[in-house]
């Protein structure tokens, strides 16, 4: 972020390639081994003793360091031999470094730290020929030469940068310490010293908190610098806040222009001075890096932390600031710090200058850049709020600003779609509506569809009206591409397989084949985790049947409905209670009878067999009495049809089931025997079993503790036996009272009568003899 900001700001160069400052010697206390604290100005004796500690300086040539007195002649003292005291440094040099940072035009958010390199002592005749310092550490942005106070002449340091040069003549000052810094990529030389001594400390200046590329920071060619910054911006995410670097959301770049524009005054051709130059450079970069660019108007809402001007402390602090006074619109308040900002793009011009009717679009802060802060704009609205919880006083300000918005062409579909899905889709559908033959634009359209792959599912949510569905189906057919058609449809869910769309599906099946349709249906069905089945299945199948969809499609839908419903029911039926629950029995019965009907209506023996197989498997614990209803469906069938469907299979199954039950007879009036399926082997359940099987006992009073009572009660519930449970809260422990249903006999009698009746009717209807096997 700061890289691109700095690049944009570089148009009005705030900084220079060098910085020259002075500071009192009291801030630079240097202790040298064996010599002690240096006192300024340095005397000739001290300097001689420094030389005694020194060695001739080498210089770096490619990978080596070389001693060559025709290139460099100077004494060097390694930093291990002296120390700079921290206290003075902190007080004097740290603030000084901040100023140097500004002099060099480095981004506000950054900071400079130093890396001491060496001490150099120049005697008359010493020099250093033109060279560039090798970058010894990462993010080394500049070299700083600190000249200690002592008289000399000559020894000028000449620094060059992009054709400009500056001569730092340290001889002009002999009382104060001089700090001269210059960009690391400058060529520079030290002219021969004429008289006296020149003693300097050299430092590498390191830029902290900077995530851009160093070369782009010191590049003075504006276009090139913008270009580099833009290339970097779109090729990495390391300028994003750390928690967002792993996202793969498309990147946006929004630069708020310096000047104000109205809707009618906004055009690429009529931008005002700095805006024009920056936008031109950005457009050049956008062409080179395959970016789309829009000129826009944005609504910018900022919330500022602010102070009351009458508060003496803050107002004096404010006026002390060395920056020029800023005229605040809200005369009584001073804006202090920005707390929050929100940018919404509201008006769009495309690269050709045409107004585009996109929705408004909110842009996250990390993508928004500006060289002039909102503070310098006149808000069209503002609102002051007194002390509110977390913050002190706040000022909300709304501005209208112009902005250039850019993103990578490869992200265009996803971004535009995100901004305004429906108009994007409208544009996508346009050729179809215009009746343009697909082979004329196939490749183009296919590329657009592919780019949208990740967002189709978002689009699906916007498809609501029958017309929208209709057009979507039409489009899927229009694109004439099986694979893409399938991909688009797969974003929907099972609700798309519905009566309303049978005609659309039929058309697609005609175009892409029935196998293709079945694949699409499978994908939609797979998505359904819990299968409630198709809504109104008979109606759905009928609709597909009437439109003469391929038989295999019908069979597929039928099998899905049967298979997945049975699977789900089987899980429920693991609970014995469920098996005898009246509601549940009815539901299972309705399912099989519905499916038998559908199979017969479709006149499909294969499907019919599938349902009958399920019935005969006894998986669904169907009630034989109810099955009589089901097979009555066959009664009107002709003889041939009965043979064709092999109805004897189901009829004899039902008949046998009825006979089996009938043969059990009616229980005795005084018989309290209850059958059950034992599922627990504990002593309590043994005792419970004894009671249930006891022909003579209708009830049992059982003094057992609470947890035991609970276990027995839940077993009685799970086994679904007709036994009433009560707790007698007397004595210790309380007593569990189990009572077998009074109606056992009456129910048995009634059921037996019904079974006998049904069996007789069945034999009559289908002309079979009772008891005949
Ligand atoms: O002595 C100076 O002013 C500069 C020295 C220098 O260029 C170097 O040490 O690389
Ligand atoms: Fe140098």
TrEMBL record:
PROSITE patterns: FE2OG_OXY. Residues 110-207 form the Fe2OG dioxygenase domain. It holds the Pfam family 2OG-FeII_Oxy_3. InterPro entries: Oxoglu/Fe-dep_dioxygenase_dom, Pro_4_hyd_alph_FE2OG_OXY. Keywords: Coiled coil. Residues 559-586 form a coiled coil. This is Fe2OG dioxygenase domain-containing protein. It comes from Cysteiniphilum litorale. The lineage of its organism: Bacteria, Pseudomonadati, Pseudomonadota, Gammaproteobacteria, Thiotrichales.
